[in-house]
Amino acid sequence: MKLFLSFLFLFAQQTTINAQEAEQENGIIHEFKSFTDTHKNEKVYLHTDRRFYSPGDLLWYQSYTVNATNNQPSQLSKVVWVELYSKTNKLISRQKTLSNNGYGHGQLELPKSLEPGSYLLRSYTALMRNYPEEFMFEKEIVVVDSTIKPLGSSGNDLGLQFLPEGGHLVNGIKSKVAFKAVNSGGLGVHLKGEIVDQYDSIITEFITEYNGMGVFSITPTEGKKYKARVNNYPIELDLPTPKELGYVLEVNNAKKNTFDVFIRSNVPNSSDRQSLVIHSKGKVIYTFEPRLKVGENKLTIPKIHLPDGISHVTLFDENNNIIADRLIHVTGQKSQISIELESSSFDKRSKVSAKIVSQNQQSIDGVFSVSIIDLGQTLDSIPDQTIVSELLLSSDLKGYVEKPAYYFDSSNPLAKSHLDLLMLVQGWTRFSWNSITALKTNEEKYLAEKGLEINGRVLNERGNKALENGTVTFLNKNVIPTVFKQASTDANGRFTMKDVKFYEGDQVVFQAVNKRGATNVSLQLDTFNTEHPPLANSKRGSMQFNFSDGDFTNFSDHHQKREYIKATYEFDSTKFRDLGEYVIQGKKLIQRHGNRGNVYGQSDYTVDFRKIDTSPYHNPFQALQGRIPGVKIEIGGTDVKISLRNSVGYENNTPLSQLMPLILLDNHAMRYEELTSIPPSSIDRVEVYKGNSASAFGSEGAAGVIAFYSKVEKDILDEDGKGAISMTLPGGYNRPLEFYSPQYYPDSENNTIPDQRLLLHWEPMLFFTNESQKTIEFYNTDRETNVLINVQGLSSDGSVFNASKLYKISK
Question: Do 90 and 538 form a contact (C-beta atoms < 8 A)?
Fold first, then answer.
């Protein structure tokens, strides 16, 4: 057995190598590669703080935008659209979220006028609009109030499908037939029935196993017809007509490291050549050209090269037409996390430290989000839709998947077999051969949005003549660093500014001048595009609630109590402060009072960016390369490595030569990858401190300090701002807010205010920087209750994480 497996792995690996070398010769491989090279696509996932809300609540979310082929954080799109729809598909709210290197966060205010019921949260990027809308992110949320309770629609109609494994029944060959029974709301229905032939003889019986899905076996006989009869339903449904000659594809995916492919044939003496292709997310993993004989043909294939998620097992004829196709799912879950607490029970208002730990203490480079809720005040439970179930399953399937997180429950011995059953009934995927061949000729109408765009026109003062070679300047001082853009006008006076950054409510400044620098001109801005994709083919089902009237009353009573506390004590458990430019993570080292001189003492070196042509550079680090003696800068995408000479000694047993200098932007500490998203044209100068000069920064400056300073208004606008226009633009990013969580000390002012928070803590943008654990801290409320912690996240290599933990608040 060991010898056989060793030979098998060698053969499979060699097959992969041969496939890569033969890309130009093998039409199937070439088609896949051509499609993925020319058709870029993304996925979006929103982690929300919960599912059940009251009118007027804030819905908190973190967005994860990934490359659709490998789930790695996407750097293509900076704009993530977030929409809320009613049950009748009416648009309630729409906003833009800034995504930096695949991550963003924000909040959606639910109108107080919302009627109770189910609503759809949808999210996507512009690039995703080139593909069917069924692959946009969707999540149903529920609004509950004290007067009317939302009721799930179970539906009375029955939809029933029978799906032979591989696609066809063939006379004389035993086949598995999967089936799916759903109600009018798209939810699974339990049923049983029997398969009969035209003489009403019972061939076999069938019964659902999970969520309306089941499977049975049948060997069709030539000349017979088959139909399904359902108990307690007046339904008789014909099974697909068997082929006289053909191939039946069966897959056994029960083993851990390999899967078996059975190809059964009744085609005699065939000289046709077939290809068996294993492909995933548009990439060919294995190709085989088996010599198929009449009867059973078996291949055992290793899973080692298959990525987590959905793969196709497809049998092609010599003309690249599909003979049979089967989905399989691989869930290696190579990376996992857990949540560790000091106890399973805590006192009221006590401080809780929750440690997020990676499996086997493996380092993680990624971003996480954390939601902590009081289960006694909500109808929520452990999430049934997570970043794991979305990116590894639902996002690649066209139809509605009921409770997708169930299939990733490692403690459930039936979850894996039920997931394989789902693969049998859920046939249409994002990366199927048919979808690729159908989409390959489509022109990509929508491009990735690299930021916000402003278009307009500059005319003479009377507004009747276009001005060519004029200059338009944009200035936004509401973010750090100050954002400014400049654009020139063409022969028609038109200009375009790309990758502009402003938030809803920002007061921004425009200045337009003619080619001689005079400001006696007229500036016209285009209307911002409000077009959005239709919600015609949503794959949501009708939510079904297993709650009593008392559960809904309890939810509403607690909401009213929180509203009373807010009104009486002027205490709002969702207090927040404006984050402005959210990418700034560090603490402010010194208060800025307009004077941005050398407040830390004389620096060792200054780089004046006003004397540098920054147009060839994408970020400030690129513009700095080779300009500072003793400073070495290496850049790879958003990864930056900087070393300063004369940084000697040790810090926490680490040589300073191995540490990275502290990075400041306008006296705020920043992460390296955050500064790469800032245009170098907005930088005024850079100050470098090392050795003794960095002593003012304490231990944080042990490896040196590089301080960036952005331009101020007088450096940007011509003629001291003459002719400048201040305005609030529509169409800005949703301004992220920081969730407020109280801290309790003996003399705290909050000690006399009742604390009945439902959402104890919400923490987005929790960075892991090659770390194996992270600790978050928060305080409990006044309630004796059960609390749920849910952590979700994504690493730079495309690994997805989800973990939940329960604890109690007691006396």
Answer: no
